[in-house]
Amino acid sequence: MSRAALARTHRPRRFEELVGQDAVARTLRAAVQGGRVGHAYLFCGPRGVGKTTAARILAMALNCPNREGGEPCGTCESCERIWSGRTSLDVVEIDAASHRGVDDARELRERAMYAPSDEERYKVYIVDEAHMLTREAWNALLKILEEPPSRVIFAFATTEPQRIQQTAAPVLSRCQRFDFRRVSVRDILGRLEIVLEREGVDAEEGSLLPIARRAEGGVRDALSLLDQVLSFSDDRIGAADVRRMLGLVDEDRYLAYFELAADGDRSGVLPFVQELLDAGYDPVEFVRGLAEGLRILLALSMDPAADVEVSPDSRPRFVAMAERFEEVDLLRLLMAVSDFETSGRFRRSAQQRIQLEVLLLRLVSMDSAVELEDLLRAAGGEISPAGRRPGRPQGSSHPTATGRTRPPRSSAADAGADADESSAGSGVPPSAAGQAEESPGRRPDERPVGGAGGTVGLQEAWRTALAGATNLSGIGLALRGTRLRETDRGAFLVEAPAGLADDLDAYLADDRSRPVRTALAKALGRPETDVELRVREAGPPRRMTAEAARRQRLEDMAGMDPSLREAVEELDLSIKE
């Protein structure tokens, strides 16, 4: 035995019943009450948020003999006929998806020239899916939209207003545009409760929340899902029935995975995926819910009292789980899941299980964020003012580097003790021993050079010198795109592109380059007489290995704070750009 869908039987009859569209409802009601109704309206917004319903209520209000305060009565014969979509002489609904051509537009234009059935009534044409009209159809309607007959109203509803902008931009200036927004979960829940009360059906606490979430802001979609649940359940809606009907993953399973992630338990991931698939859950649905679960944890981590969309029974467990993560860790996990989901490859993959296992293992294995200043102190270094970000208070909880919770290769104290023992046996000071151990692995341009200014990277000294040489002009400006290398004899080679090498060589041999040599000598802490600059052509670009690229980034960062390089190498950190 068939019955009407809930979305039809519980369609709003008054402006005040429109869900989540208060601004639109108030404006239209005031226009009807004040006699300031426009001749053409464009209702834009996602599907199922009330665009066509608002157009029908507007038509009801304009033609209702019992109108009060701009609201239709909703019970008279005229209102009943318009609300139910039955044939009406004065209110015509047109589906533009199937009547999109120029001939259909001409027919509509001719029908609009006839007067309403009564001099007190309005003719209202509701054109749904208006973006489907062709350019020629819009052109046929332009004249009547610009100079409409009296007591004729057009209401265009569309989910894609940008297509109207592309095909018929002049139409937009002839219509009053109203943008309908997605309805909040709270408002959808309120509407579902009203519908269930009218239907005489009870619902378990928290059982309607998954329906409101899945609707994604559409009231019509929410009522359609509720229709399915009512067919699935008896006289009472249970939370388990709703989740089973929608194919949603239980919150307990997400909490179980978050437990694995908090403990860093890789061994439990593969059995978890096996159990998930054995229970018949969709991997795509699980990943979607995983992102939502991480968002909830992030919100609760920032504010345990945050208003999040989680069932009352599960909220204490989510709050407790959020306390086990740092905010920045949750943000990184959420970004990883979001990137994975939005790439689109997972949905189309024939090996979803393997991709899901890789994702979950990667999340469990992700490093925990730690405070860079704590790492530098642990390595025995000091935080220089240049190494600390301006405006950030000391002790700030925002991380600037990441470290794994696994034990480091050696602690700072052990490293210091080993250095003392080795230097004592060899007669070499600890600092010199450390430099001697480090030097063989460095490229010439990475080797630190010392002087009155302390230890500094060669490239950083070169950049500082060029920045301090304020009189650079002409060909001298090209030095800023070069690199500097030191030969074994103590001379400095400027690597320049082939087309500039000769000109730069002549420039450096001239007195015009003296400010550069002076600034470089100052940056290196050497006498100016010891600074000899020569030019050579840079070789063809060579492929950089991963280790070389890492060292290059480290060199750039170490220019801001030399102790950072020591911490990265000592504690085996990874540089996050």
Key descriptive features of the protein:
single chain; 577 residues; alpha/beta; 5-stranded parallel sheet; 3-stranded mixed sheet; 27 helices; 12 strands; 49% helix
Description:
The protein is α/β, with parallel strands linked by helices and 577 residues long. The chain is 49% helix and 8% strand. It has helices spanning 6-9, 22-34, 51-63, 77-84, 102-112, 135-146, 161-167, 169-172, 185-199, 209-214, 219-232, 239-246, 251-263, 269-278, 283-302, 315-322, 327-342, 345-348, 352-365, 372-378, 412-426, 430-438, 458-468, 501-508, 514-524, 546-558, 562-571, and strands at 40-44, 91-95, 123-128, 152-158, 176-179, 202-203, 236-237, 369-370, 401-402, 483-486, 492-496, 533-537. Strands 2-3-4-1-5 form a five-stranded parallel beta sheet, with helices on one face. Strands 10-11-12 form a three-stranded mixed beta sheet. A two-stranded parallel sheet has the order 6-7. The radius of gyration is 36 Å and the shape is flat.
